[in-house]
Amino acid sequence: MDNLPSTSKMQRLPNKNKKLTEAELLKLLEEDSDECVLSGSEYNPSDEEESDIEDESNSDSSLLDENARQSVKSNDQQNNDDEWYEVDCTHLRLDIQFPGNESYVYDDRYPQNRTELTPFHVYRKLIDDEILQLIVEETNRNAAQVKNAQRYSRSSRIHAWKPTNKEEILKFLGCVMYMGVVKLPKIADYWSKSPLYNFTFISSVMTRNRFQLLLRFLHFADNTAALPNDRCHKIRKLFEMTQLRFAQQCNPGSILVIDESMIPFRGRLLFKQYIPSK
């Protein structure tokens, strides 16, 4: 209340509608200045505020110094990276000793002259007559089961089915491997007579209808003997037979490098993994 202007001063204020002269304006400014000085309204920081200001100033100064040191350190490190220096890798060297017993089993049925050995000899050692006989039996059984399951129209290709044999299955597998190397948009294109698809190899091995029938009925296991808890029953027996033959043909050493391959498959399978990035 002490800082409020007195009543006498308020009464001396001119009328709002009356224009003030220059002398009256100067007098009012002087009176306001005197009141501010007498009321002690000037800003006087306390000791605590002065301490806070000093702390903030010191903190800002330390941050600037730290940034400067980091900048100098970064520049020095960048300059050092451009310089070549020797690296001691003695502690990284591993004394790898290959046992030397890696070998491929040379079968007695192979040519005595090893220079005459061809990839087909090795292939027939892995895919032997026993495996071919398994494919023949299960493919013929599957075709009979499918034909007896329902009736088909007279024009259906299924009526043209005839039991297969080992020689034909061997040719069929050869065509499949050839298609993996020479890729065309559709299977029927391998039998096309168009100049754009002038491939006579597969058409000389078997007809298109016969190949598609074999592909339709190809099977490796008996559906009626499948175990309910084995989700790989359709390839279980074939897998075990081929695994045994691969193990018999090679004596691996203790140092192995195992590569993996991913097969694109969009069918419905419980234990498959979908990896979009692959």
Automatic annotation (TrEMBL):
Entry-linked InterPro entries: PGBD
Annotated PiggyBac transposable element-derived protein domain residues: 118-278
Residue numbers spanned by region Disordered: 31-81
Biased composition regions of type Acidic residues, renumbered to the chain: 45-58
Compositionally biased region (Polar residues): 69-78
Pfam families attached to this UniProt entry: DDE_Tnp_1_7
PANTHER family, A to Z: PIGGYBAC TRANSPOSABLE ELEMENT-DERIVED PROTEIN 4
Protein name per UniProt: PiggyBac transposable element-derived protein 4-like
Organism: Diabrotica virgifera virgifera
Gene (name only): LOC114327190
